[in-house]
Design brief:
Blueprint: E1 2-6, E2 13-17, E3 23-25, H1 35-39, H2 42-53, E4 66-67, E5 76-80, H3 84-89, E6 99-102, E7 108-109, E8 115-116, E9 124-125, E10 128-134, E11 150-157, E12 160-161, H4 162-167, E13 182-183, E14 188-190, E15 201-206, E16 209-215, H5 223-230, E17 241-243, E18 265-270, E19 274-281
Parallel strand pairs: 5-17, 7-13, 8-19
Antiparallel strand pairs: 1-2, 1-4, 1-14, 2-3, 5-6, 9-12, 10-11, 10-17, 11-14, 15-16, 15-18, 18-19
The structure holds zinc ion.
């Protein structure tokens, strides 16, 4: 199943994208894609409900804005430097265990919403990433059991301000949580749709030119390891998002470095998870 949300900002309604690509409004189901939906067997209940009701669901126009495909999660945990070549281009060592940081959930926007360069920023950068959506509360979960706690996957662009992230004192979170820095979607693909999350091509184009083009088979720490590892330090709740890190090809790694400016168009995608496009705008 592919879960979407659509409508104006803050008033999104839940929907489903069907196999033929058309989208239907499932508001009649009576639940949004919240922590209690994922944690309360919502995916199974929705699947059953659709079998009886799909034909009566209103179609969604292709012109409708897509929102993030879940309501605001309790947290968004990100893995840094999870591809060896990206660690090298960042001038950092390959980590011995996953590097973690938080991304402010207020940064989450729809997949095709504009990217706003933060006030005064000169080093706003892109990062295509596979993100995991948690389906079942996870605390001290083993690698072997990790997949039982995954609901599905979603495309994420982990926008990053390199001055705030690296040149200012302290933690990376300063450069990761600016408004619009976390476009999610177009949809959550439930895990049954993705045969092997550790072998997906992912790419990103800047103004039509391919700048990132890799595979999650190059992960240093794979999906099972990342879910298990994070759950040793905090409880992951249903609907939480884990972003698994970006491959080689970010602006920071160019010589000279290349950062986003108003008018740029960023397009990205992952096998089985669709594509998203953000237009870069100045902060006003
Ligand atoms: Zn990242």
């Amino acid at each position: 199943m592919k879960l979407i949300r659509f409508g104006t900002v803050g008033k999104e309604k839940p929907g489903v994208q069907l196999e033929n690509g058309s989208r239907i409004d499932i508001s009649e189901f009576g639940e949004d894609y919240t922590e209690s939906f994922f944690g309360g067997d919502g995916l199974d209940r929705l699947q059953n409900w659709l079998e009886a009701n799909e034909k009566n669901c209103p179609k969604i126009s292709d012109n409708e804005r897509l929102g993030p495909p879940m309501t605001r999660p309790s947290k968004m945990v990100c893995v840094g430097l999870n591809y060896a070549q990206h660690a090298a281009e960042s001038g950092m060592a390959v980590p011995k265990e996953p590097v973690l940081f938080f991304k402010a959930t207020s940064a989450i926007v729809g997949p095709n919403d504009d990217l706003i360069i933060p006030k005064g920023s000169e080093k706003t950068d892109w990062e295509v990433e596979l993100a995991i959506v948690i389906g079942k509360k996870a605390s001290y979960v083993s690698k072997e059991d990790a997949m039982h706690h995954v609901a599905g996957y979603v495309l994420h662009n982990d926008y990053s301000e390199r001055t705030y992230q690296i040149e200012k004192e302290g933690q990376w979170c300063k450069g990761k949580g600016c408004d619009t820095f976390a476009p999610l979607g177009p949809f959550i693909a439930t895990k049954d749709e993705i045969k092997d999350p550790n072998n997906l091509n992912l790419w990103l184009k800047l103004n039509g030119e391919t700048v990132q083009n890799s595979s999650t088979s190059d992960f240093i720490f794979n999906v099972e390891e990342v879910v298990s590892y994070i759950s040793q330090f905090m409880t992951l709740l249903p609907g939480d998002v884990i972003s698994t890190g970006t491959p080689f090809g970010v602006g920071l790694g160019f010589n000279p470095p290349k950062y986003l400016k108003p008018g740029d168009v960023v397009k990205l995608g992952i096998d089985g998870l669709g594509t998203s496009t953000q237009t870069v705008k100045a902060y006003i």
